[in-house]
Request: fold
Amino acid sequence: MQGEERGRLLKQWKLLDAIEVPGTLYDTGLGYPAANFTEKTGTVFGELYDYYGDYVNHELEKMDKIEGVDENLYTRIKLNYRGYEFYAYEISSKLNRTRDKLDIIKTGNWRQTGSVSHKSVSAFALNFESIQSGRYDTFPESNSSEFVDLKGNIPILLVSHHATSHLRKGKIKIYEKFTGAINVILNSLSGVHSLYTVYASPFDSNYYETTALKKRIRDIVESCGIKFVMDIHGTGSYRKFDVYPGVGKEGEFINRNEFLMTVLENVLKKNDIRLGGTQVFPAYRQHTVSRFVNSELGIPALQIEINKKYREPDTDSHLFEKLIHSLNEFINIIRKYLNSTTGEFN
Reply:
């Protein structure tokens, strides 16, 4: 998967979507998972790719060697699911002998168990963006989507819809680097639901009232019981402060909840990250995602603008890791608040 140790091997492949397939995912204890698609106790999360170059059989044979097919670690099988026909690697005899002793990954998502991001968020981000960068200005073809979503296990959704370039009034607006990686890392560390762009967007969802991404946000909020949405953006290094919140003209997008802003300010301050004022990026002047979530879906939404110097793990990994630690801490506090007796923001 993108950002993980072997994600680079799919650099020449086209990412179509992220999907969940019926099956069981095991932790082998060897630093990698194993899936059984016959044993349908849950779902297995993965990314779906299409090879668009020549010599596809050669590429598959190369993948077989990497996955240890000859060593009976995995077997390449063909699956049909939700209109897709694709190959997947299933647990084979060598690993299957010890299956009864293996732990089941209940989420079905290896990222939340053994991701590179659990060891080094900077390494994951660099891996992730090395692939993402090849699609920053590429618009999706008919069989793929401009965005993908990752299922979480807490009622919070993170959105990064400027992780790639986007069109506004016919002009292309530049991507906000590493916001996609930040989103996926926080899905891995905290269990938030994640939605981010992987191709350039034909419509800027922070400007146009109706977009495919906003429709997907509505679907996720309604089907997963989302209680809070955080929209992640990036701003320039010339800005005076490190993080700017967007909450509407008078805090209306977070239901004027002082607790939420107090938590954000305290967490950032503890980690020496300076919080700017709410009027720099108020998120109400256009049809922003935060405005849509609060006014149309009735739940609180917070736009976060992150200074570029905190989004450069290749330049300063310490600042990047400090940012991730702070956002993860903020999310965990909000999660506990939502799990309290009310389960809602006041």
Summary: DSSP finds nine helices and 14 strands in the chain.
